[in-house]
Specification:
six-stranded mixed beta sheet; seven-stranded mixed beta sheet; Rossmann fold; 12 helices; globular
C-alpha cells in the first residue's frame, strides 16, 4: 500500500451510481480517486476538476489501483473486472455478472459480512432491492426462522440509469418503459429471479420459497418494497419491531416512503403488522435509497470490511474514535 493511502478507481463514474460513489468516497475522506468511463465520456470532468479516463483493459491492469468499484453493465464488467484484478486491485462489482458465481462472495456487510474475506480478488454487490430486503429479513430469520417470503417492489427510474432520470423529468416520459424495464426469464422478469436467487445465497437458505413481483414507478430516487413473510415460530409485530429497531442499518418509522429514504444511509421499515392471511405471518413495508445503501454505499462498506483500516482514511477513523460517526 503506497504511503499516500488507498488508490481507488470508479469505473462507470459518469452514471447515476458512479456519481454517488464518488460523492460518498469524498465524504469519507478518500482523496486518491480516479474516474473511468466509456470512450464517449472520456475527457469530461466531474466535481469540477476530476478528469474522466477511458476504462480500457490496459488502464485498469496497469497496477496503479488498489481498489476498483465497477458501476457498469454486466457485459462490461465481465470484460473489465479481470483486468483490474490482474493489475492487483480488489474489485467490487455492482452488476449481476458475478453475483451467483460459485466462490465469489455476494455481500451485504450487516447480513453476511464474514463471507467477504473469502474473496479471490472479486466481490459482488447485490441487487438494489436484495440489499434492503436481506437487511430486514436477517434479524427476523435469526429470531423465528423464515418459512416463506413474498415481496412486491416499486422501483424508481434511477435504477435504470441517469438517462431515465432525465426522461422522467421531461414533459412526456415513456409510460411503457416506466411500467416494465426488465427482460423475461420464463414467466418471471429477470429482476424477480435475481431477487430470489441472491436472497437465498446471502441468507444461505438455498431452498427458501420466495416469490417476487417487480415494477418500475415514476419516482426519481428510492425503491419501496411490500413484504409478506411466514415464520417457523410465532413472532408478534411488537417483537419484530424491536428486532428491527436493533438491527444495523435499519430504521423503524411509521410509514416508509422513497422521499423519506432519499439521501439516507439506512433502510426504512414500517407498517409492521400481522399478516391475517396466514399463521405466523407478518406484513411490512420498506424503502431505501437505491443509489446509496442500495448500491454505492454497500459497495464501499464491502471494501472497508475487506481491506480494514487501509480502506478508511485517518480522518474518518478519528471521527469514529471520538464518537462523531
Amino acid at each position: 500500500m503506497p504511503e499516500g493511502g488507498m488508490r481507488i478507481g470508479v469505473v462507470g463514474a459518469t452514471g447515476a451510481v458512479g456519481r454517488v460513489t464518488l460523492r460518498l468516497l469524498r465524504e469519507r475522506g478518500h482523496g486518491d480517486v480516479r474516474a473511468f468511463a466509456s470512450a464517449r465520456s472520456a475527457g469530461q470532468t466531474l466535481d469540477g476538476d476530476l478528469a474522466v479516463e477511458e476504462a480500457t483493459p490496459e488502464a485498469l491492469a496497469a497496477g496503479d489501483l488498489d481498489l476498483a468499484f465497477f458501476s457498469v453493465g454486466t457485459s462490461a464488467s465481465r470484460e473489465l473486472v479481470p483486468h483490474a484484478v490482474r493489475g492487483g486491485a480488489v474489485a467490487v462489482d455492482k452488476s449481476s455478472a458475478y453475483r451467483l458465481e460459485p466462490g465469489i462472495p455476494l455481500v451485504v456487510p450487516e447480513v453476511n459480512g464474514v463471507r467477504a474475506r473469502g474473496h479471490d480478488g472479486i466481490l459482488a454487490n447485490p441487487n438494489c432491492c436484495t440489499i434492503p430486503l436481506t437487511c430486514v429479513l436477517k434479524p427476523l430469520h435469526d429470531a423465528a426462522g423464515l418459512r416463506r417470503v413474498r415481496v412486491a417492489t416499486y422501483q424508481s427510474v434511477s435504477g435504470a440509469g441517469a438517462q431515465r432520470i432525465e426522461r422522467l423529468r421531461g414533459e412526456q416520459p415513456d409510460e411503457h418503459d416506466l411500467a416494465m424495464d426488465w427482460s423475461w426469464d420464463g414467466d418471471e422478469t429477470d429482476e424477480e429471479s435475481k431477487i430470489r436467487a441472491e436472497t437465498r445465497k446471502i441468507l444461505e437458505l438455498p431452498e427458501l420459497p420466495i416469490s417476487a413481483t417487480t415494477v418500475r414507478v415514476p419516482v426519481v430516487v428510492g425503491h419501496a418494497e411490500a413484504l409478506w413473510i411466514e415464520l417457523d415460530e410465532p413472532l408478534s409485530p411488537a417483537q419484530a419491531t424491536q428486532l428491527l429497531h436493533d438491527a444495523p442499518s435499519v430504521q423503524v418509522v411509521d410509514v416508509p416512503t422513497p422521499a423519506a429514504a432519499a439521501q439516507t444511509q439506512d433502510v426504512l421499515v414500517g407498517r409492521i403488522r400481522a399478516d391475517r392471511a396466514t399463521d405466523n405471518g407478518l406484513a411490512l413495508f420498506l424503502a431505501c435509497d437505491n443509489l446509496v445503501k442500495g448500491a454505492a454505499l454497500n459497495a464501499i462498506q464491502i471494501a472497508e470490511l475487506v481491506l480494514g483500516p487501509a480502506a478508511r482514511p485517518e480522518a474518518l477513523l478519528a471521527a469514529q474514535r471520538d464518537g462523531r460517526r
